[in-house]
Amino acid sequence: xxxxxxxxxxxxxxxxxxxxxxxxxxxxxxxxxxxxxxxxxxxxxxxxxxxxxxxxxxxxxxxxxxxxxxxxxxxxxxxxxxxxxxxxxxxxxxxxxxxxxxxxxxxxxxxxxxxxxxxxxxxxxxxxxxxxxxxxxxxxxxxxxxxxxxxx
Length: 152
Known about the structure:
The protein is an alpha/beta fold. The chain has 6 helices and 6 strands; from the N terminus they run E-H-H-E-H-E-H-H-E-H-E-E. 34% of the residues lie in helices and 21% in strands.
């Protein structure tokens, strides 16, 4: 197997956040990130980047660049976030306006990976956000609700 083609993404915080409202102890997070780096895991998807701020949700539900910079993440570890395509598509100014509001150019962000979660019927409408993110320097993935992921 060619290791250069296989990308391992740890999604423990993003996925596990459903159980604790994305509210993790900072010390646990820093220890976990160090462990992922020690195991040579290339990507850790920290949480979501979202407009939805209804009800209590911890920092991993929004995962702002400022929050990520407050973590003690090893320098070689690539950090990522997930965005729901439905939020981008429903944004009043359109998909590009939404993604521009959520992200700045990669050179100004601690985030390396952006995965867009979408249903099959949202896929085509989400594609302009993929193009914009790639032009900004991000590694981009699409997680289709049918259970597969596509990376570009």
